[in-house]
Amino acid sequence: MARFGRVITAMVTPFDGEGRLDLGGARRLAKWLQDNGNDGLVIAGTTGEAPVLTDDERLSLFAAVIEAVTIPVIAGTGTNDTLHSIHMTKEATRLGAAGVLVVAPYYTAGGYRRARPRRGRQHRLARGRVRHPSAHRTQDQHVHVAHAGP
């Protein structure tokens, strides 16, 4: 069997009546999904409300779910900022995530600039302009992200 299994569910993120993250509800839901045949869970993807979670909420969610289940947890760590995504990925790994879900910054100019390799001040900012050849936008940015790193 594959490391992550055959049935992996993108889990919703529970909130209470006041709009606060419900970690107890997340633990219960994760256990229920595990007990009912899931081989792994994806948390904090777009189904899991990732865009509206703070870093503290996201990390608390990672910790709560990872501690609650014995199946692999794939943590959504991607953002539109490459350095922030790297930071969140390192934190998720430290908490015990079996994998991460990352969509390379692809749409906003700010994310694209941050994804470029860092070879000096003028190169990093590209003189304040970023060119997006629309036919190759996603492919070009993935190439740049592949070379970005610590």
Short note summarizing the structure:
The protein has 150 residues and is of the alpha/beta class. 43% of the residues lie in helices and 9% in strands. Strands 1-2-3-4 form a 4-stranded parallel sheet, with helices on one face.
Order of helices and strands: EHEHEHEHHH
Identify the CATH class of the largest domain: Alpha Beta
- As a percent range, the share of helical residues equals 40-55%
Number of strands: 4
Principal-axes shape call: globular
Q: Which architecture of the largest domain would the CATH scheme give at its second level? A: Alpha-Beta Barrel
Give, in spatial order, the strands making up the sheet with the most strands: 1-2-3-4
What is the gyration radius calculated from CA atoms?
17 Å
The amount of beta strand, in percent, is: 5-15%
The overall average pLDDT, rounded, is 76
Write the CATH homologous superfamily of the largest domain: Aldolase class I
Kindly, what is the distance between the CA atoms of the first and last residues, rounded to a whole number of angstroms? 34 Å
Briefly note the structural class of the backbone: alpha/beta
Pick out the low-confidence regions: 111-150
Instruction: Tell me the CATH topology of the largest domain.
Output: TIM Barrel
Counting structural domains, the number is 2
Helix count equals 6
Major β-sheet profile? 4 strands, parallel
